[in-house]
Sequence to fold (261 residues):
Amino acid sequence: MADKTEKTSDKTKGKAPAEERFDPKPVHVGGESLVDRLYPHRFKIAVFIGSALIIWGIVAIVIHFKDSSSQKATNKLAVVLDIGDKPIRPAPEGSAAGSGSAASDDSFTSAKDRADKMLDALAKQGTDAAGPVYRASLLVQAGKLDDAIAEYKRGQGQLGIDGVLAREGLGLAQEQKAEDPKNDPATRQKGLEEALATFTSMQPDATGPRRDFALYHQGRILELLGKKADAKAAFDKAKELAKDSPELAELVDERLASLGT
Fold:
């Protein structure tokens, strides 16, 4: 009997009394509703949403005025471009030379007359949307080389193709100024050397846009300076890069032919 009592004690050893046993009950997961959870933070949430709306409103206003400003600049430039679309019809023989305006409101007597009108329109519109290269090209057509050179220099530091075109235009304007028949030999040579320096810096990247034209211009100026061997070397490099530009390749061939090569 004692053995049974001991065995029974062993079986029940370590077990809690019935009233102390764990009795799992279902738990309500989630607690209060989402609204109830957020309600204590309602002020912070309202401030956050309000701030976000204010920031978005500011961004929207900036974008609106930026787009509006761009549209206005485009409209102003369109007025100038419309003038440039009008054709050039030389004045009839016997008419007064330099009479200025065109034979009619729809045409101009010369490229200079048209360029002058376009420059006047740019000034009246008060827009620089065209950029220094465009304005400088009009100044060249108007015969105002010094002003054109100053304008090209203003744009020569621009990045990308805009800077390349500005330096190319600057070199061409310097060359044109150097070739003025009124210049003495020393002035001419100095001007051509300036143009050569500009064309040398026109596109320093060997694989950059218009690198072939930069070499072509260098060859032309070197030829004008009497440096035929250097000119040939520049033309050869330009021809090698001008494989995808038949027009330039033809010009290079003509130059090489003029050098006797």
The CA atoms of residues 45 and 253 lie 74 Å apart. Confidence is low (pLDDT under 50) at residues 4-9, 24-30, 61-69, 97-103. Residues 203-261 form one domain. The first helix runs from residue 2 to 12.
